Amino acid sequence: MTDTTEQARIRVHGLEKAFGDHKVLRGIDFESARGTSTVLLGPSGSGKTTVLRSLNVLETPDRGVIGIDDVEVDFSRLPPGKAGRKQSGRLRAQSGMVFQSHNLFPHRTVLENIIEGPVIAQKREYDEAVADAEALLDQVGLGDRANAYPSQLSGGQQQRVGIARALALKPRVVLFDEPTSALDPELVGEVLAVIKDLAAEGWTTVIVTHEIRFAEQVADQVLFLDSGVIVEQGTSAQVIGDPREERTRRFLKRILDPG
Ligand code: ADP
Ligand code: MG
């Protein structure tokens, strides 16, 4: 294997996580180069969300190394207490997460939702945060909805605000966990289009999705997960177009040809 550690933006080695005696991740290894999109496919319960939550340190892995740019944490050696929390916090700040449903604050406007993190958590200048938020809203096609409340937006628009909110924190990588699976079918396309634009613009992304056609278009790398291990990985042409493993074939067939 060639050593891509130097230039890889995301490095995951030997990642393990159990909940009680249920081993959910059993040694995950992958790397993502800067500016690439990595799509995670796999059946429900295979550990996709736990991989993303580990990258964002919403879960603390039991073992393994996660590095994003110059911040690397070896969870096998995470110091206890404050020192460990500090390491975890630094790594968490490297990524932004977009969830299945947006969880925007209902009593705040779109703009207020977006500037909350930059102003409160990151202590950035209010005016600068507002200017950035307006630019991000333009980018996700919602430049005219800054003063709307979440309930006045469609699900697809809310999800695009969720994307703008993640980007406002200026992360190095953006993580998407089934960003369209809670949407009505007619709203899926507008959200996928925004994600595609971000990828084309050079954002480094990791995307969990069941939208196989979208995955084929956007992915530089596809990982197929089953029972907490990566069963197959490669380009989308390899993993989706010409899967080697029986488990991958069965999964794709079920998704592309349900019933
Ligand atoms: P996926 O996103 O691929 O559907 P998840 O990563 O959400 O899979 O979950 C993998 C397994 O871990 C599932 O069996 C799930 O029930 C279990 N799991 C996830 N989070 C927790 C948790 N906080 N406590 C206990 N079990 C969990
Ligand atoms: Mg999940």
Give structural notes.
- With 259 residues, the chain is α/β, with parallel strands linked by helices.
- Strands 6-7-8-3-9-10 form a six-stranded mixed sheet, sandwiched between helices. The protein has a four-stranded antiparallel sheet with strand order 2-1-4-5, with helices on one face.
- The protein has nine helices and ten strands.
- 38% of the residues lie in helices and 25% in strands.
- It has two domains: 10-94 and 176-259, 3-Layer(aba) Sandwich (Rossmann fold), CATH 3.40.50; 99-170, no CATH class.
- Helix 3 runs parallel beside helix 5 (155-168), helix 4 (126-139) crosses helix 5 (155-168) and helix 5 runs parallel beside helix 6.
- The model is unreliable at 1-5 (pLDDT under 50).
- The structure holds adenosine-5'-diphosphate and magnesium ion.
Overall CATH class of the largest domain: Alpha Beta
CATH architecture of the largest domain: 3-Layer(aba) Sandwich
Q: Cα-atom Rg, whole angstroms? A: 18 Å
List unreliable stretches of 5+ residues: 1-5
**Distance linking N and C termini:** 40 Å
CATH topology of the largest domain: Rossmann fold
Q: SSE order, as H and E?
A: EEEHEEHEHHHEHEHEEHH
How are the secondary structure elements laid out?
Elements: E1 8-19, E2 22-33, E3 37-41, H1 48-55, E4 63-68, E5 71-74, H2 81-92, E6 95-98, H3 110-121, H4 126-139, H5 155-168, E7 173-177, H6 185-201, E8 204-208, H7 212-218, E9 221-226, E10 229-234, H8 236-239, H9 246-256
Parallel strand pairs: 3-8, 3-9, 6-7, 7-8
Antiparallel strand pairs: 1-2, 1-4, 4-5, 9-10
Helix pairs in contact: 3-4, 3-5, 4-5, 5-6
Bound molecules: adenosine-5'-diphosphate and magnesium ion.
